[in-house]
Amino acid sequence: RSLSTIETLCSTAICGIIHSIFGGQPLLILGVAEPTVIMYTYLYNFSKGRPALGRELYLAWAGWVCVWTATMLILLAIFNACTIITKFTRIAGELFGMLIAVLFLQEAIKGVVTEFSVPIDENPNEEKYEFQWLYTNGLLAIIFSFGLLFTALKSRKARSWHSGTGWLRSFVADYGVPLMVVLWTVLSYSVPGKVPSGVPRRLFCPLPWESGSLYHWTVIKDMGKVPVAYIFVAIIPAMMIAGLYFFDHSVASQMAQQKEYNLQNPSAYHYDMLLLGITTLLCGLLGLPPSNGVLPQSPMHTRSLAVLKRQLIRKKMVKSAKECIKMQASNSEIYGKMQAVFIEMDTSPAKNSSVHKELENLKEAVMSCEDGVDATGKFDPEKHIDAHLPVRVNEQRISNLLQSLLVGVAVLATPVMKMIPTSVLWGYFAYMAIDSLPGNQFWDRLLLLFITPARRFKVLEGVHASFVESVPFRYIVTFTLFQLVYFLVCYGITWIPIAGIMFPVPFFLLISIREHLLPKFFPPHHLQELDAAEYEEIDGLPLHKRSFSTGVCSFAH
User: What is the b/e burial string over 232-244, where b = at least 16 CB atoms within 10 angstroms of the residue's CB?
Assistant: First the structure.
C-alpha cells in the first residue's frame, strides 16, 4: 500500500490536465517533486511507529495532511500572499534553478553508483547479485546512462546539423530525447543470452490493476478511522508542505514566464495558488501524492515553445523577404512586407501597440543596408532576421494538456515501462540537469570567471547579457562568488535529514539580504544590471565594429 510509480504518474496526469485546462498560466508544468516524496517518507515513518495509525492508516492520515495543506494554500491565495513573489528577484530564481539542476545530477550519480550494489530488501544470494554480475550491471549502467546523456544532448542540437533534410532535423530536435530512451532500451536487450535476467536492472512498476494500486482510490473511506488527535497533529506537517508548495510553485511559475520570454498573457499567481489548493485536496482524498509546479521542466517547456514560434515566424518572414528581393523591391518595401507578416502571425493581444518598438532594430538594420552602410549594400534575410527577430512564445494550452494525457496513457503502458533499464533513467536525470543550465545567468557568470582576460572579447562578439558591458568585472566576480557561497549553503541544507525539506527558508531570507545588505556592497545601477527583474540580451558584433567605451572598462577593472 506504499506509494509507487503508478500513483506518481496518476497524480501528474490528473493535476496536469486540470491545470492545463483551468490554470491561469498553462505554460507551468506540474509533477510530483522530490521534496514531496521526501515528505511522504517522513509521514510514513511517523505513521508506522504509532499504534493508533500504523501502516494501514498511513495514506488516510496523509489525506488529512493534504486537507490541511489545501486549506492553507487556499487561504494564502484568498489573502493575496503571492504578492511576495514580486520580491523574488532574478538571483532567487537562478539559485533555485541551479539547486534543482544539481539535485537532479546528484540523483543521477547516486543511481549509477547503486547499480554496483544489491538493492535493499533483495536476496543477495541470487545469481544476478554475484560479484561478477553486479560488476557487469554497473558497467552497463555507465554505458547506458552516459550513452543516453550524450545522444540526447546531441539530438537537441539537430537543427544545426549539416546533414539531413530540414523536416528530419526538426523532428530529431523536437522528439530526439524520447527516441533516445527507446533506442537505448532496445540496445539493452542486445546483451548475451548467458547474462542473468536481472542484468541490466530495469524499472520496478507495479501494475495499476493490482490490489495495492487499487486501494488508493478508496482511501477516503479510511480517513474517518484516523483518531481526532492525529487529525490535528497533521496540521504540523501540513504547514511545512504548504510553505514548500507556496515557494516551489510560485518560483517555477515565475521562471516559466521570465521577462526575456516576452510573454503577452499576464501572470496569475493567486489564481494558480487557489487551483493548487484544490488539486492538493483532490489528491489527498484519492490517496495520491500532490503535484505542483516543477523545475526545470517549466522553463524548458516555455523555451521549447519560444523556439517553435520563432521558427514559424522566421520561415514566413524570410520567404516574404526573398520574394520581395526577387521582385527588386526597395528595402523599405521589404521591411513593410516583413512587418505585415509578423503582425499577421503575432497572436498577442497587445501586438499593435508593441510591434513597432520590438521591430525597431530589424527596421534599422534593413534601412542601413539601403543607405550603403552594409558592406554589400544588400539586405540578407537570413542574417538580419535571425539577429533581430523579437522573442515570441507559442502561448497555448494544448502542449501541456497533451503531455499530461500522455502521462496518463503511460499508466496503462506499465508493462512497457518495466522494460526500461534504470540506468537509462539516470542518464535522463543528468540530461534534465544539464539542459536546464543554458539561460541561467548564474551559470553564465560562473563560466565567465574561467575565461582569461585576453579572450573575454569573444564574449562580446556573441549573444551576451547587457551586464557584461555595463558592469565592471570586479563587481561581476564579487556578485557571482556571493551567489556561489549562498548556493552552497542552500545545497548543504538539503543534506540535513529532517530539516532538508526546509530548504526554501534561505530563499525567503534572500529577500531581506537583497533589499538591505547587497545595496551596501554594490552601486545601485550595477546591482540593477546584475539582479534586474528584466534582463536583456544584445546581439554581438565583430570587435572592430563595436565601441568598447564601457566594455573595456568593465573587463579592465
Answer: ebbbebbebbbbb
CA distance 456 to 476: 13
- Separation of alpha carbons 508 and 129, rounded Å: 46
Query: Contact 550/469 with Cβ under 8 angstroms?
Result: yes
- Going by the DSSP 8-state scheme, the letter that residue 544 receives in this structure is G
Distance CA 317, CA 548 (A): 33
DSSP string, 491-514: HHHTTSTTGGGGTHHHHHHHHHII
Answer whether 129's CB lies under 8 Å from 122's CB: yes
Q: How far apart are the first and last CA of the chain?
A: 62
For residue 242, which of 270, 277, 210 has the smallest C-alpha distance? 277
pLDDT tens by residue, the chain, 557 residues: 467 788 888 999 999 999 999 998 888 999 988 778 878 888 888 888 888 888 888 889 999 999 999 999 999 999 988 888 777 888 888 888 898 889 889 989 999 999 999 888 788 888 888 889 999 999 999 999 999 999 999 998 887 888 888 788 888 887 889 899 999 999 999 888 788 888 899 888 777 777 666 777 888 888 889 899 999 999 998 998 898 898 888 888 888 887 767 677 788 889 999 999 999 999 999 989 999 998 878 888 887 777 655 666 666 777 777 777 777 777 677 777 777 777 666 655 444 556 666 666 666 666 666 443 344 455 666 665 655 566 667 788 998 999 999 998 888 888 888 889 999 999 999 998 998 888 788 998 998 888 888 887 777 766 667 777 788 888 999 999 999 999 999 888 878 766 656 777 888 888 888 888 888 888 888 888 888 643 334 444 444 344 333 343 444 44
Classified as helix, coil or strand, 444 is: helix
Q: What does the alpha-carbon distance between residue 199 and residue 316 come to, in Å, rounded to a whole number?
A: 51
Report the phi/psi class of residue 532: left, alpha or beta, with left for phi > 0 and alpha for psi in -120 to 50: beta
Distance CA 420, CA 436 (A): 24
C-alpha cell at 243: 510553505
Angle between helices 90-114 and 504-512 (to 10 degrees): 160
Burial status of residue 545 (CB atoms within 10 A of its CB: 0-12, 13-18, 19 or more)? exposed
73 CB-near residues (< 8 Å, 6+ apart): 242, 245, 246, 273, 274, 276, 277, 280
